[in-house]
């Protein structure tokens, strides 16, 4: 019995040791196609909105470009993209997400096209619940360079240092006010910034092609941010 217990302890310790030594996700391991394709210019399609929130589409669309630009990519300005898509009667991303993206290279000179799908966008409790799916495709060979689903909850409830009943009520009142007054665009920016936080850095970023060993997130994530 003692021998069996001793073996169990050793195996448990080994599992902890090797588990702690397990390699983390890196950008190179998560996005090998990105480093192979080396996209420079991106075009962002209007989001596909599968929710009843009619404003979610525009809110998300106007804020997708910022984190991509910060990551070192040239992004065709959204208003210019919309004007050109409308001229071609092709601004519904639903009709283009499964088509050959080579047309985006021909029309925009883009190396990659960004699609987004809004599955959830609603106020929940003292915050905003979102579920977003992003896909970035190469316009050269239709290869998927980036594919992530994110369940992100934006928590607007303030931290309270008081344990009193009055302090609790004040915190609840403040949280309710924050939820009501926080501009939805802020939520959209936070979502996009978080989702693209680990995207491989582009040509116009000083870490271009040197960030492969940086830590990356999993493909599908659930997170609460403040």
Structural description of this entry:
The chain is of the alpha/beta class. It has one domain: ABC-type transport auxiliary lipoprotein component (Rossmann fold, 3-Layer(aba) Sandwich). Helix content is 40%, strand content 23%. The chain is built from eight helices and seven strands. β4 and β5 form a beta hairpin.
Strand and helix layout:
Layout: H1 2-21, H2 27-30, H3 32-37, E1 41-44, E2 48-49, H4 56-70, E3 74-75, H5 78-87, H6 102-108, E4 112-124, E5 127-138, E6 144-155, H7 165-181, H8 184-195, E7 220-225
Parallel strand pairs: 1-3, 1-4, 2-4, 6-7
Antiparallel strand pairs: 4-5, 5-6
Helix pairs in contact: 4-8
CATH class: Alpha Beta
Which value, in Å, is the CA radius of gyration? 22 Å
**Global shape:** globular
State the helicity in percent bands. Answer: 40-55%
Q: Strand share of the residues?
A: 15-25%
Mean pLDDT: 81
**What is the H-and-E element order?**
HHHEEHEHHEEEHHE
Total separate domains: 1
How many strands in all? 7
Structural class: alpha/beta
CATH-level-2 architecture: 3-Layer(aba) Sandwich
CATH fold type: Rossmann fold
Q: Could you list the spans in which at least 5 consecutive residues all have pLDDT below 50?
A: 1-23, 166-182
Number of helices: 8
Distance N terminus to C terminus? 51 Å
- The CATH homologous superfamily name equals ABC-type transport auxiliary lipoprotein component
Largest sheet: 7 strands, mixed
């Amino acid at each position: 019995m003692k021998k069996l217990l001793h073996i169990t302890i050793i195996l448990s310790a080994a599992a902890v040791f090797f588990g702690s030594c397990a390699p983390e996700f890196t950008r190179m391991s998560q996005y090998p196609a990105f480093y192979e394709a080396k996209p420079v210019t991106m075009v962002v399609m209007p989001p596909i909105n599968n929710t009843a929130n009619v404003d979610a589409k525009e809110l998300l669309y106007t804020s997708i470009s910022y984190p991509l630009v910060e990551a070192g990519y040239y992004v065709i300005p959204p208003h210019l993209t919309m004007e050109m898509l409308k001229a071609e009667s092709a601004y519904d991303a639903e009709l283009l997400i499964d088509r050959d993206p080579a047309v985006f290279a021909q029309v925009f000179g883009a190396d990659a096209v960004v699609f987004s799908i809004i599955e959830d966008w609603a106020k929940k409790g003292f915050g905003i619940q979102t579920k977003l799916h992003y896909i970035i495709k190469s316009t050269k060979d239709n290869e998927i360079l980036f594919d992530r689903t994110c369940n992100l909850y934006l928590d607007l409830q303030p931290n309270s240092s008081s344990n009193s009943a009055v302090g609790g009520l004040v915190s609840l009142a403040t949280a309710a006010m924050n939820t009501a007054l926080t501009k939805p665009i802020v939520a959209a920016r936070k979502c996009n910034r978080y989702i693209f936080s680990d995207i491989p850095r582009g040509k116009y970023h000083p870490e271009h092609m040197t960030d492969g060993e940086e830590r990356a997130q999993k493909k599908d994530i659930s997170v609460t941010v403040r």
